[in-house]
């Protein structure tokens, strides 16, 4: 890392902001995974809200390195572009305080960005459907998300990579929970509690979906602004998207998005994405049996630390 980049990173993350972000990770015990096919497919504004507004842990699962995409910066193509876009994805995730689960490993891997496709079946033929499903099962079991949200719908008119990734993400749900599936992974089964599809068309207007989106069962609505920066959550999402510089991402919207419509597969109407799940330490303690006392005490310590912020001298004692 160059000195200028080190200085820029430190300037962008002052101590109190880092401390606030660390404390906010304790607000929820839930974990959401957003699946997509390329770096920049992530739903950045929604993820910013879920991470910083609701306190959920966030992971972006990405099937390719974007090596078959465009590049407005220079002449890098193929493996070089994949390397660049991988770094952009990591930096974009850093803004969102998110993890990245890579499913593809570059142009020599069958799961790679081979250019535009309108057919999910064609994408599976190139990637190997069983291969990408197995990698998603591994990602679910390793990361253990409670909630999974693909960015795109599997409908005609949508990019074939997106269609394949969404279909694979849904197929992998039952397999990840099945002890008999892929035992060679050496990972314990994991059951995802909720699987949402976007209840909007075109991945946010980028593509011409030929079928309408599914019914909205949840409108996840922002409450206020990010207390650490004073920014709208969707604006933080654009800070993240601007890291995808090779794709010309990052926009200034005069009226940032304040809600996202989602469809809970095999579910009913909800008022919040956390509905029906133990979202906090207190709620988890109510279900924990013998561990309830320890979880309750941990919840008290977290509350005390939150009250002590921004006095860094008081925080260690609160968390002791």
Automatic annotation (TrEMBL):
Gene Ontology molecular function: any one: hydrolase activity, acting on carbon-nitrogen (but not peptide) bonds, in linear amides
InterPro entries: GlcNAc_PI_deacetylase-related (IPR003737), LmbE-like_dom_sf (IPR024078)
Record protein name field: PIG-L domain-containing protein
């Amino acid at each position: 890392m160059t000195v200028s980049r080190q200085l820029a990173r430190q300037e962008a993350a002052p101590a109190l902001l880092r401390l606030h972000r660390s404390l906010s990770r304790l607000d929820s015990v839930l974990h959401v995974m957003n699946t997509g096919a390329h770096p920049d497919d992530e739903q950045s504004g929604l993820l910013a809200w879920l991470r910083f507004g609701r306190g959920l842990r966030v992971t972006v699962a990405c099937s390719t390195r974007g090596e078959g995409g465009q590049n407005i910066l220079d002449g890098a193509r193929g493996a070089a572009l994949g390397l660049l876009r991988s770094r952009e994805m990591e930096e974009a995730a850093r803004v969102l305080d998110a993890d990245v689960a890579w499913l593809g490993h570059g142009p020599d891997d069958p799961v790679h960005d081979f250019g535009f496709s309108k057919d999910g079946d064609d994408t599976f033929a190139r990637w190997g459907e069983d291969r990408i499903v197995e990698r998603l099962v591994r990602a679910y079991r390793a990361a253990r998300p409670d909630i999974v949200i693909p960015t795109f719908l599997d409908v005609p008119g949508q990019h074939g990579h997106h269609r394949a990734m969404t279909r694979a993400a849904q197929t992998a749900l039952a397999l990840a929970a099945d002890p008999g599936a892929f035992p060679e992974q050496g990972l314990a089964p994991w059951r995802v509690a909720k699987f949402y599809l976007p209840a909007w068309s075109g991945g946010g207007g980028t593509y011409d979906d030929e079928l309408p989106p599914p019914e909205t069962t949840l409108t996840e609505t922002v409450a206020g602004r990010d207390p650490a920066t004073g920014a709208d959550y969707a604006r933080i999402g654009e800070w993240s998207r601007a890291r995808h510089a090779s794709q010309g991402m990052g926009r200034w919207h005069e009226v940032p998005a304040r809600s996202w419509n989602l469809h809970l597969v095999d579910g009913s109407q909800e008022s919040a994405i956390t509905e029906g799940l133990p979202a906090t330490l207190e709620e988890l303690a109510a279900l924990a049996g013998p561990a309830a006392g320890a979880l309750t005490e941990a919840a008290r310590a977290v509350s005390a630390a939150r009250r002590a912020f921004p006095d860094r001298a008081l925080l260690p004692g609160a968390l002791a």
